[in-house]
Structures are given as C-alpha cells and as structure tokens.
Amino acid sequence: MGSLYRYPRLIILLLLLIMVAGSAAITTMPRLEDPHMENRVAFVITRFPGASAARVEALVTEKIERKLREVAEVDDISSSSRVGLSFITIEMKDEVEDVDRVSALLRDKLAELTDLPEGAADPVYDDDRLYSFTAIIGLVWHGESAPNYAILGRHARELDTRLSNIPGTDFVRTFGLPSEEIAVTIDDDMLAAMGMSALDVANRVFAADSKNSAGTLSGEDNRYVISVDGAFDSLERIRTIPISTNADTGIATLGDVAKIERTHRDPPDSLAYLSGDYGVVVAARMLEDNRIDGWMEKVQSMLDSYQATLPENITADIIFDQAQYTHQRLSDLMQNLIYSAFIVIIVLLVTLGWKASFIAGSILPLAALASLAVLNLLGFQIEQMVVTGMIVALGIMVDNAIVVTDEVQGRLLRGERRSQAVARTIRKLWLPLMGSTVTTVIAFMPIILMPGNAGEFVGGISASVIAALITSYIISFTIIAAMAGRVLTRSDPVQDATQGQHHSRTWWRDGVDAKPIRLAFRRSLHWSMNHPRASLLIASALPLMGLLLASTLDEQFFPPADRDQFHIEMTLPAQASIEETRQLVEEVHARLAEDPDLLSAHWYIGQSAAKFYYNLLTNRDGAANYAQAMITATSPAAADRMIGRYQDRLDRAYPHVQTLVRKLEQGPPYNAPVEIRIHGPDIETLRELGEQVRRVMASVPSIIHSSTSLEVGRPEITIVPNERAAATLGIDLRMIADQIRAAVDGASGGSIIEETEDVPVRIRTSNEGRTSLEGLRALELVPGISNREADGSFSSVPLTALARLEVKPSVGSIPRRNGERINTVQGFIPPDILPETAFAEVNKRLDAANFSVPPGYSIDYGGESEERNEAVGKLMAQAGVLGVLMVIAIVLTFNSFRLAAITFASAIQAAGLGLLSLWVFGYPLGFVVIVGLMGLIGLAINASIVILSELKNDPAAMDGDDEAIIHAVMSTGRHIISTTLTTVGGFMPLILSPSSFWPPFAVAIAGGALFTMIVSFYFAPAAFKLMLGRKSQSRQDELASASPDLLSRAGE
C-alpha cells in the first residue's frame, strides 16, 4: 500500500472512482422514510354471516388454525372469533427469509380445507398489511345530498386502475366503500299471494344463474366445452327470470313482483369521513426499490389529469403524502450530517493544524461516498437508519486517518524521507489498526445479524458504520497515507541545526499546544505510574458507578416518534351499530374542528384506518363499534399539546366510550403498552380472572383506560321454538333459522360478474324485521311444502306463535393464541408515562392483591415488555460467538492474552461510562441505547489498542521503564484526544436534536467516549505496568527456583 505514494496519477484515478461511484449511489439509491422490513405477518379473514362467536371459533377458526400449524415456518398464530367473522394473525419465524415461499405454503394449506361449514365464505389470505401506504387519496362527496356510493365507487375503481398503472406501484386498496350488491326487494303480501317464501324466490333466482359448465363434448377430431347461456350480466337479465306460473295470470317474472336495483349493502361494512364529508379512500404503496420523490411526482401528475374527469361535487385530494415526511426526515438527518462534519473538521484543525486536518478530514467525504457505493451494491436504501449510521460513523471513520496522518507527520518532522515515512507508518500501524477496525466491526455485528423486524429496522445503522469503517481503513492506508507523505511539511534536523533555523509553533499550522495542560497531563501520568493500583481503582470508579446505577434507569423499548400526526381510536360498547358509531364520529369531529392546532382529521368507521405509519396495527375488520382517525396537526409540538387535551376532553364528554388518543411510536407494533395474558380453557373463568386483573389495572393512576380482549355481555336474541307446534306445520328448526336469516340479512341468489368484480344478488322482503325487535316479532313464517294447499298457497304463521324471543348476554369475541383461549387485559397510558413504569406498578398491585390463577391456567406478559425482551434477547443471541471472534482478533493483534484482557476490561468500563452518561442526562435505557453501547465498546477497544500497541512496540516500555511508558502514552495523546473529540463533536447535532429518538443514543456513545479517555490514559497504562511487574516477578521466581540446580551442576 505504501507504493501508492509513488503513483500520484493512480491516487487521482482512485479519487475519481470514489466520487463517481458515490455520486451514482446518491442519485440511484431508493429513498424511503423508514427501513424496509420483510413481511413476516399475514392475516386470514373468513366471514361466516350470522354465526355466533362460539360457532365461528369451533367451526371455522380452530380448523383453520390447525391447518396453518402444519407449516413449520409459522411461529405464532393469534385469532379473534367474532360474530360472523374469524380473524387470524400469522407470524412467521424471524429466521424466514423466503417469505413468498412460506406464503405459498400457507395458501396451499387454506386451499386444502374442505370441512368448513355451509354458509362460511372461503378464507381470504391477506399479506399486504405490514407496510404503510405511500400516498392516500380521498375521493370526497360534497353537497347537501347523501353520498352516492355507486358514483364514488366507479371513480374509485378508475383511480385504483390509474394508480396501479404508475411504474413502481406495488399495491392499491380502497377504504370506506360499502359493499355493492343487487338488491331484490319483494313485498310480503305479494309473496304470500304467489304461495312462495323469500327462500323459494332466492332458490329460483340462484338456479337461473347459469355460470356452471354443462360439460365437455369430446369427439374423435374435436373437443367442445358446453355452456348454458343465461348467466347474470345485467339488471334486465335478472328482471326476466320466471318466478311463478298461474293459469289465470300466466308467467310472473321477478321484475313483476320485486323492486330490483343496484345499491350498496345496508348497513354498510365501513365508511370514510374525511374532514367533515363522506367519501372513499384509495391508498397506494410504492415498491421499496423506487425513489419516493420521483414516484410521488408521477402520482401528482396523474391526479392532476384525473381531476378533470370528476364531476363538480367530487374532489380527489392527497390526504397523506409520505414523501413530505421522508424529505423532512432525511433533510434533518443530512443537516445533522453536515453539522457533524463541520464540527469534526474544526476539531481536527485545532488539534492537528490546517494541513493535517485537511488530509485527515478528507476521509469524511471519501469514506462517506465509498460507503454509499458499497451500500448501493448491497441493495440498501437511503432511509433514516442508514443516514444515522453515517452520522455515527463520522467520528469513527476519521480515527484511522488521524492516527495515520499524525504518525506520518511525526516522522516527517523527525527528518525521515517522505517515502520512508509513509512506508514505515503503514508497516507499524496496519496490524493494530486492522485489529481495532475488526473489533469495532464485530461490536456492530450483532445489530446487523439480529433476526426479525427489529433487526431489520436498526440494521441500517450497523451496515453504514461497518461500510464506513472498512472503507476508511482502506482509504487511510492508501490515499490518506500517500497524501500525507506528499503534502505535510518535512523537517531536516541536521540541516536546520546547521543553518540555525527554528520553526516556531503556530496553532493553525501545527495544532494547539496547550503547554500547561500537557505538563499537568505528564504529572498525572507520573502519579499513575507511581501508584498504579490506586490509578486502577480511581479510573474504575466512574465505570463501576455507571454499572451500579444502570438498575435505576427507567426502561423504554423505543421512544415515540416526533411527528405532526397522531391517531384516535374510539370503541363503543360491543352491541353498538355502525350507525351509532357514525353519529359519534360526526359529533366528535365537530368538537375537534374548532381547534386552531388541527390541520385535518380523517375518520375510518367500522375498520382500521389506511396505514399511514409503519407500525400501526390494522386488525379491526368488521368492527361496527370502532372508529379510527388520522389526525394531522400544524406541527409536532402542536400534536404533543393536542394529545393530552383531546384525551381529557373526549373522556369527559363520552365516558361510555373507550377513547385512546395515541402518539405514534417507534419500533415493532403492539396492541397496548401494558398487556397481561391469561391462558385457559373455560370462557367464564377467563372472564372472571381477566376482570380481576382489569380492576387492579384500572386502579393504577398512570393507566387511563383498560379493557379485556374477551368480550362477554354482548346482547344476543335467542329464538326458543316450540318444536312440536312447528312440526305440525312441517317446519323444522333449520327452516326457522333460514327464514329468519332471509328476512333479516336477505338470501343470496347468484351474482353478476362485471370485469373482475363479483356483485352478489340479494333477495329480501320489505318488512321491518331487519331493523327492529318489534319487526322481528311480527315476522311471518312459511309452512313446509307438505302443509301447503294443492295450488301451493299457504297461510303464514307469526314467529311468536311458534317460538319465544329472549335477549341474553353472549360472547362477542373469543381470542386465542397458539391454539389456546386467552383473555388479554390491556392497559393504556399517557405519552409522558413509560410503559415499564406502569407495568411495574400493575405487577406490584397484583402481588398485593394476592392474585393467582387456578390449575390449568397460566399467565404471561405482552405489550411493550414482551417486544423489548424479545428484541434484546435476539440482539444478544450472537454476542457469545462474536465475543470470541473479538477475543481472537485482539489476541492476534497483540499476540498476548494479558494485553487482550486489559483491552476487554477497558471495553466493559466504557459500557459503564455510557450508562453513567444516560443517568446524568436522565434518559431511559432503551433498545437504541443498547445498540449505542455496543458501538461505544468498539470505540473503547480502538483507543486501548492504539495505546497498548505503542507501549508494546517500545522496548523500554516493555522493560517497565516509567518514563518510556509515559512517553508512549503522551505520543498517542494527540490522536486519542482528536479521535475522542471528533466522536463527541460528530454526535453533538444528535444530542441537541429536538427529537426524542436520537439524543439517548448519542449521549450514550458521546458521553461514554469522552469519559473513556480516563480509562485509556489511566487504566490501560497502569494495568500494563502491573502486568509487567507480575511478569517480571514470575521470571524472578523461575530463576530463583532454578538457581540451586545450576549451583549444584556447577559444583559437579
């Protein structure tokens, strides 16, 4: 590598290569707000209309779960069996990399299901809910009239098509559009006059929809597929279906006796209420290998042309644009990167002088560009973690360049020839700096090797740092060393003495020479050498204090996001209808609209909101009593003010509603920050245990709302028939259920296929049994065929003549986890309360209440606590193997176990100093802090290796000479101080950032690095001297034991 000094043109070509490759990476790398994570979560949704939660669990959920469990890559299966709906969440193992293959296996298992009950729909496999949408567009209906969803639906489908056709679009989904259907409404009296029931009509309509194949005609020469013409393709076709034949009136068609219209299901499944008007939401997601700014430009261009096709009372507006947040996030981080680089350059100028600072500082753009080129080749995107990794690397990547530049400069000032100074510097430093680089790389390896989404989320930090470390090492020993040899000033001591020349020291040329500080530093080192054991104890005091204080630090998995958005979730009692939820949303929105801090509020009724942030959960399908709002404030500070204010106002105004005003969080998602799960077989016992825990949880002041996942108490109307009376009319219990369902929900009668859509035909009667209990009581039942007149006519029977109606409480939702029934008690907290604090208080009160579960039941914990423990466990899983590799690297660097032990002792103390820094600044201990401590350990090892290598290469120091040890330590002082100050300076923008995410991380590394200088200067040299003393004593003991032998042999 030293030969590069002789080829300046090669240096220029290498510089050009780095600049071109780095610039190309900046131009072509995809840009995202958050890291891309593998989609290891999927959902299976199965509708079973009219079935109770218990029937859904037994007949649908359990069977699907059993089938899914056959796939070995499945880790956890959670489910919720609700009235008419089975919702199953599948989590794959973290080790799964080929997600598409596992998804194909799961789909195959679902296709094998043959024993689902009649009336249950086919299970729908949905694996498109993990990622947030890139653009969310609202189609809003304006005007006094009620929204026409047929028109809105037509325009929404057109917008869906246009978005899908934009290059780079991954997925498009529509929200708030009620299901479309063909409604066939028949008058009860007319049905009775024809001697038919609604089920009879539905069966005839269904029989007229000839979509089935009529077989295949195979001859010797030809093969023909046979079909019967008459499949439903229009409303007119449905109107012409013959329903009954009468000798007097002839053939009656469906159009003669029923009102047939295209409409939307009533009540609707879901609605969208967008800033005070109803509409439809169309959300699109970009492929992760695209640049978000370029893709959004295409979306905006398409939307401009699409607006011209809309009627005056419909507008299409972008209600969420992720590109704005991505640009803001990356701009802030890039600004921090520039500030950090500027601070690093200033530090280098002060400590090294302008020439040396220029050379050492040139590593920053070169290593940054080279790192981006490497990351681009490895398929990374430019997102917040990658950019943060570059900021972290700023203070680290300059270390090698400082050491190399300082060494070359020292040799040149001692009169060595330029080529000789470069060659000897490389020969001396390549191994110890490789050792320090390798150990720092290993320190960051657990992050990038960590499996699962948590590892993928923060892995960009590790990837950036590792790329920067490796490229900076290579560049330092090639380009930087060659530049230093050519640019730095050389002195010739002999010639200067002959000519009487003396170069006076100036700070801007040679760096600051703080003589009083230098003398005081030397005196302190003298004291340390004279009292090595006391020096060890004093240097270890602060790290030990940090390790002891670590147990007093609050714990926080990930801090909340700093964003001008938050969300509101409102859950009404389980029996609430979507109409009641809609009225609540309108009233709440009217209250919130008066707030000057509010920019927009978009509500989703009956389902989860379109995912506008990466860790929001979207698992509330078919929840008529649920609404969620995406709230955008005028600023992040305004959002923080609004959260507490809204929570208080809405709780007081609507005490019967569970209202959660929630700040957006970082890290893996969870349903509630505090969760206690109770496992067991019996629903009633689970309910009682869950209610005990919930009461205790509700007594904790920091818990603002609590709930249980096992919903018991939902009103259910039970029909209790008189079987004997029904049997005399030829009516069995199944006929009663079928006729009531046809009256309440309508009966299916085929479907119209339009392009790729299947629009169902629903036959229903015009009575009021569909909407009120009184109408249900007045429902007329049709007797069996055997009890009708010869001409088919009949006398209907009131339902109340054959049965009584009872309203009973029932189970609204039955949750399960990995095949067991569970009841999860959830606690929700204000944003200024740490989950771990609330969790500890809940556990304390449960212990005080002597809460326990009976045999056959168990308890475990979810929420933030579970996610944190799992993530930290995965992070530390590789620590053992990587620790051994680190030991190997250091032992090979020094060829000494004792020096390696001193290095590792310094590393452990550095971790203690990082924890002490957290305690001083009052930050909690979180996942990103642990990541930072790993990086700090690498930095501490670097400093120890530099000092111990200098001591090991000095024969006098190896003989235990105090002056030699002091001289060696002081000779490394300038670049140790320079590298430490550049590290601290590089993190200053993150430390001073208004964000709540990065300051704890930056304080742990920067504060720990600053304190670690004490360990580097007063622990490592003192330990080195004591090691030599023990080694010398050991040799003397060996010689003493050998002396009698030698004397006796001499006497012989």
From TrEMBL:
UniProt xrefs under SUPFAM superfamilies: Multidrug efflux transporter AcrB pore domain, PN1, PN2, PC1 and PC2 subdomains (SSF82693), Multidrug efflux transporter AcrB TolC docking domain, DN and DC subdomains (SSF82714), Multidrug efflux transporter AcrB transmembrane domain (SSF82866)
GO annotations of cellular component type: plasma membrane
Top-level taxon of origin: Bacteria
Keywords: Membrane, Transmembrane, Transmembrane helix
A Pfam family annotated for this UniProt entry: ACR_tran
GO molecular function, one term: xenobiotic transmembrane transporter activity
Spans through the membrane: 337-354, 361-380, 429-449, 461-484, 534-553, 875-894, 901-921, 927-948, 976-995, 1001-1024
PANTHER family cross-referenced by the UniProt entry: CATION EFFLUX SYSTEM PROTEIN (PTHR32063:SF18), PTHR32063
Name of the molecule in the record: Acriflavin resistance protein
Species for this entry: Iodidimonas nitroreducens
